[in-house]
Amino acid sequence: MANFDKLKNRNNTNCVKYDGAKRYFQSEITHPLWVADMDFEIPKFLQKKIKKKCEFGIFGYEEIGDQFYRSIIFWQKVQNNIELKKHNILFSSSVVASLSACVKAFSNIGDEVIVFSPVYYPFFSVIEENKRVVNNQELLYSGSEYTIDFDNLRKTITRKTKLILFCSPHNPIGKIWSEDELMQLADIAVENGMKIVSDEIHCDIVFDKFTSLAKYHNLKEHLIVLNSPSKTFNLAGLSTSYVFSYNFDILRAFKNEISKMHCNHLNSFSNIAIQSYCNQGKEWLDSFLYYIQKNKNFVIEFLKENNSKIKVVDSNATYLLWLDFKALNLTQNEINQRLLNAKIGLNNGESFGKGGTGFMRLNIGTQNKNLRKVLKKLIKLF
User: Fold this and answer.
1) Is 24 exposed, middle or buried, given 0-12, 13-18 or 19+ CB atoms closer than 10 A?
2) Which domains occur in the chain, in start order?
3) Of 160, 167, 153, 70, whose CA–CA distance to 109 is shortest?
4) How many contiguous H segments (helices) and E segments (strands) does the chain have?
5) Nearest-angstrom CA–CA distance, 135 and 354
6) Which pLDDT tens digit goes with each residue over 100-115?
7) Does an H or E element contain 324, and which?
């Protein structure tokens, strides 16, 4: 049984979350709850596989083994009831690299690419760095949850709008999109001849029913899905991800671009990383989700008990909480500065684009003891 309360000192291990925090925040950080990796050990069965590989002692070039495909096919069937074949799947070193390859494969310089902000910040950079234009659809915020403004979306689509980058579940707001929202988005894409790139890297970390866009048959010729075990099993450092599509022209175009970027080569542990997709992995995931749900409940209850004006936005996915500071009537700079003065590292809401002002992102993928320390400080600060 995994022990998620086990504390590990990650300082001086060259990890971005701890050792990179001072560089990122330009300030000393003792409580880094920002970048989306976790303070939990990976499953024991994976540790054993990696140890065995290390003991073998040779780390030459690797190719994709049959188990790589079998693991993905098994996992997508068990988790999402999606039927895949080997020929539907391609390897990539990271989801962000895949996003960039998709922008280049499915649009031209000067074309518009739709995103829904606030959203994971590389969605903007992969568009702008490839000389495309961001068509930013700011999500509607009711004060407790977010929705897509479909009327505005339809109005702003032009002949230059070629692609939608979609985050499902959505980072940073932690939303599982409803089937009605997914159907509307699929219909709009098909009607306008657009392709959708669906980043589903957080789809295992859900607390309600998740539906992949791959379930919509009318979208199969327009869709490519990006995924990875890195968020689910805390394997970001192994640089392993994959894409799948039912459209071979889409896969061919993607393969061409990801190859040009030289981001289609496995490292020595990529085949092992994908083997997290198994029955043992499912058992670990179930216990992990239970722990994260407890952490989330703890944050919500602690803030309420202390009459805090900080509000946790309603969510049902990810180990990232979107905190609403608006009731405090502080500027974003004032919020950031108070946190930095207390040596707390959270993600600045404005880094996620329009709609991010007045918010911060909190990573609860850590030991409850760490959360308690930070929340006690938050109450004193705000």
Assistant:
1) middle
2) 16-43+280-381 (3.90.1150.10), 59-277 (3.40.640.10)
3) 160
4) 14, 15
5) 12
6) 999 999 999 999 999 9
7) strand 320-324
pLDDT digits (tens, 9 = 90+) for 225-247: 999 999 999 999 999 999 999 99
Q: Above pLDDT 90, what percent of the chain?
A: 100
> Global pTM?
0.97
Collapsing DSSP states into helix, strand and coil, what is residue 112?
Answer: strand
Asked if the peptide bond before residue 118 counts as cis, ω within 30 degrees of 0, the response is: yes
Taking alpha carbons only, the member of 317, 325, 365, 345 closest to residue 39 is 365
Regions of the chain where pLDDT drops below 50: none
Question: What is the radius of gyration, based on Cα positions, of the chain?
Answer: 21
Q: Angle 279-305/44-56 helices, nearest 10 degrees?
A: 130
Is residue 244 helix, strand or coil? strand
| Widest distance between CA atoms in the chain | 59
pLDDT on residue 26: 96
The two three-digit tokens of residue 220, written as one number: 């199969």
φ, ψ of residue 94 to 5 degrees: the values are -160, 160
